Amino acid sequence: MPTAILSALPEEQHGLREQLEEAMHVRHAGRDFHTGRWHGKPVVLALSRIGKVAAATTATALIERFGVRRIVFTGVAGGLHPDVRVGDTVIGTAFLQHDMDASPLFPRHEVPLYGRSRFAADEELVDLLAMAAGAVSTGVFDAATRARFSLGGMRIHKGLLVSGDRFVSAAHEALTLQRDLPEALAVDMEGAAVAQVCHDYAIPFAAVRNISDRADDTAHVDFPAYLSQVAGKQARALIGALLPLLD
Ligand code: ADE
Question: Is the pTM above the cut of 0.85?
Answer without folding.
Answer: yes
